[in-house]
Specification:
Bound molecules: alpha-methylisocitric acid, iron/sulfur cluster
Number of strands: 27
CATH class of the largest domain: Alpha Beta
Shape: globular
Strand order of the largest sheet: 24-23-22-21-25-26-27
Helix content: 25-40%
Number of domains: 3
Strand content: 15-25%
CATH architecture of the largest domain: 2-Layer Sandwich
Number of helices: 23
Radius of gyration: 24 Å
Largest sheet: 7 strands, mixed
Length: 640
């Protein structure tokens, strides 16, 4: 067996391990972050279970840390008190970004992790099966229910040889993105193998598994080996080690090879993580902002590379350089070893250990300016500036460009040399900002601010439906397009009526009003609809506005699950149907519920032309029942 098969078979609850089949796996650990967490815990609370049933559940606060009003601060209190009551560890704001902290302190080889954040596969760096999902799926896992997914295909990525000094783990994943694109990982787990593995430390591996999310992959995984042992030992967690490797005769569905010694510094140009170019091909482009950090490149080693590059030098006067260390552990280490002073002396602006600019919480770049970021996503407008020009690259490329003021190839700048940082023998261990669950849960009072509104729930699926296409969109629509984040909107994550006003804001600011007025509507999408984040708000808020069905050429995995969980029917259509239907077309589904029950296709009619079309629902039996019930919560209630 390969590693993925080993991890799945040791957690298999139901189904056959054949790609394309629905399987259910047991979940050992869960993680949530604050932007998805409030909903996930409201959902968990509604299930009426006294304590989480997982081996470990952790609630992080890292997204909404600006606190421009009372909303976020209230949410943090809610999260802390509900964690204390239900047996969940609480990582306080300031302790770091969920994926970085989880890797440092909790990830465990051989186990499964379900997180309400799309970059949860970060922990796959340590031989874990780590999957991102919507908050409701995570709430179900906390309630002890298995997680349902389609048995993925397994892609073996052979890493051969050793990275040159000027290239980094980020360049490896950018190369994978160049080869596979943002939809190349859909329905797949990306499993890393080859002789190049032995040189890659766990934090470097995490850079690679983290951005597997940008491939649309179900997860990404590395073996648990000598490097895992070294990392766990340095984190004083060697007792968590379990070695896990693929069998020598393991088979894979697909295979690609990357020769690490041939890799050069790469960069994702605006505005998609798969718009990959060689850094030398865009060298010389003026840069006004450089942001280092985010869950993909904020480890101690990442920040040390930057500090070493900047030591004794200055940031270019036209560049604003920000640094967000991934965790309090990273910040403590760079302050103790003096690297923080080097960064500050060079002119870096030090931000808190949080997602920050990655999710548009401050540091929106100037108009028409290039922003160079070590992050994982550069979707249009995500930075907070309309028509932004965000490039994604390695910390080394970012650091040298911050000094020159133009995009700069580190190989060139360092004259064929590089900057490598070794994994420390010991990390500073201080878990005092991780609060353990209360020993007296019955005495914990859950604090709820006025921003926390109850979860809207829809009724059963309509027997028939006539509705207008409220919006027609192109391929690769992201959940940032559907439900934008950023400083203004993110604080409303616990308030669906309020946040729903912003649905599709950047694509069509009249959408929310139009959909609400229509009462019921349909969205027409292209390929890979809903790629990107796991935010279930991208399903919940449209559902609140009356969206009943999304017709698209194809869907991203997490978003499709979220649509089903909240009772919006995802239907797949052929390109000619997409072309034939317009925004404002009125379409009728005369036998909607009956079609779902009895056939793989749903019939619908364009009322203007009278033409009849077929769309396929691809729902499993379980999903069919959920959709008929009007969503997962109704379905569970109906069963109990
Ligand atoms: C993101 O990177 O888009 C986020 C913000 O971390 C999301 C979660 C969210 O929207 O709260 C994700 O990746 O799942
Ligand atoms: Fe936070 Fe950005 Fe990572 Fe999402 S991608 S978890 S916003 S740092």
């Amino acid at each position: 067996m390969n590693i993925t098969q080993k991890l799945i078979s040791s957690h298999l609850v139901s189904g056959r391990m054949e790609s394309g089949q629905e399987i259910a796996i047991s979940i050992d650990q869960t993680l949530t972050q604050d932007a998805t967490g409030t909903m996930a815990y409201l959902e968990f609370e509604a299930m009426g279970i006294p304590k989480v049933k997982t081996k470990l559940s952790v609630s992080y606060v890292d997204h909404n840390t600006l606190q421009t009003g009372f909303e976020n601060a209230d949410d943090h209190r809610f999260l802390q008190t509900i964690a204390a009551k239900y047996g969940i560890y609480f990582s306080r704001p300031g302790n770091g970004i969920c994926h970085q902290v989880h890797l440092e302190r909790f990830a465990k080889p051989g186990e499964t992790l379900l997180g309400s954040d799309s970059h949860t596969p970060n922990a796959g760096a340590m031989g874990m099966l780590a999957i991102g999902a919507g908050g409701l799926s995570v709430a179900m896992a906390m309630a002890g229910e298995p997680f349902y997914l389609i048995m993925p295909k397994v892609v073996r990525v052979n890493l051969k040889g050793r990275l040159p000094k000027w290239a980094a783990a980020k360049d490896i994943i950018l190369e994978v993105l160049r080869k596979l694109t943002v939809k190349g990982g859909v329905g797949r787990v990306i499993e890393y193998a080859g002789d190049g593995l032995k040189y890659l430390t766990v934090p470097e591996r995490a850079t690679i598994t983290n951005m597997g999310a940008e491939l649309g992959a179900t997860s990404s995984v590395f073996p648990s080996d000598e490097q895992t042992k070294i990392f766990l030992r340095a984190q004083q967690r060697e007792h968590d080690l379990m070695l896990l490797e693929a069998d020598i005769d393991a088979s894979y569905d697909e295979e690609i090879t990357i020769r690490l010694n041939k890799l050069e510094p790469l960069i994702a140009a605006p505005s998609s993580p798969d718009n990959i170019k060689a850094v030398r091909d865009v060298a010389g482009v003026p840069v006004k902002q450089v942001c280092i950090g985010s869950c993909v490149n904020s480890s101690f080693m990442d920040i040390m590379v930057v500090a070493k590059a900047l030591k004794g030098k200055k940031v270019h006067p036209n560049v604003s350089l920000t640094i967000s260390p991934g965790s309090r552990q990273v910040l403590s280490m760079i302050s103790e070893n003096g690297a923080l002073t080097d960064l500050v002396s060079a002119g870096a602006r030090i931000l808190e250990c949080a997602c920050g600019p990655c999710i548009g919480m401050g540091q929106a770049p100037p108009t028409d300016a290039v922003s160079l970021r070590t992050f994982n996503r550069n979707f249009h407008g995500r930075s907070g500036t309309p028509n932004d020009k965000v490039y994604l690259c390695s910390p080394l490329t970012a650091a040298v460009s911050a000094m020159t003021g133009v995009i700069t190839d580190p190989k060139e700048y360092l004259k064929g040399q590089g900057i490598k940082v070794k994994l420390p023998k010991e990390f500073i261990i201080d878990d005092s900002m991780i609060v353990s669950p209360s020993g007296e849960p019955e005495n914990v009072v859950i604090e709820r601010g006025p921003n926390i509104k109850p979860l809207p729930i829809r009724g059963e699926l309509e027997g028939s439906l006539k509705a207008k296409v409220a919006l027609k969109v192109a391929d690769n629509i992201t959940t940032d397009d559907i439900m934008p984040a950023g400083a203004k909107i993110l604080s409303l994550r616990s308030n669906i009526p309020a946040i729903s006003e912003y649905v599709f804001l950047r694509i069509d600011s009249a959408f929310a009003g139009r959909a609400k007025a229509a009462g019921q509507s349909v969205i027409l999408g292209g390929v890979n609809y809903g790629q990107g984040s796991s935010r279930e708000h991208a399903a919940l808020a449209p559902m609140y506005l009356g969206v009943k069905i999304v017709l698209a050429k194809s869907f991203a995995r997490i978003h499709r699950d979220n649509l089903i969980n909240f009772g919006i029917l995802p239907l797949t259509i052929a390109t000619d149907i997409y072309d034939a239907i317009e925004q404002e077309s009125e379409i009728e589904f005369p036998t909607l519920a009956a079609d779902i029950k009895g056939s793989p296709d749903v019939t619908f009619i364009d009322t203007k032309t009278g033409k009849t079309y077929k769309a396929s629902h691809g729902l499993t039996e379980r999903q069919t029942e959920i959709i008929l019930a009007g969503g997962l919560l109704n379905y569970i209630k109906g069963k109990s």
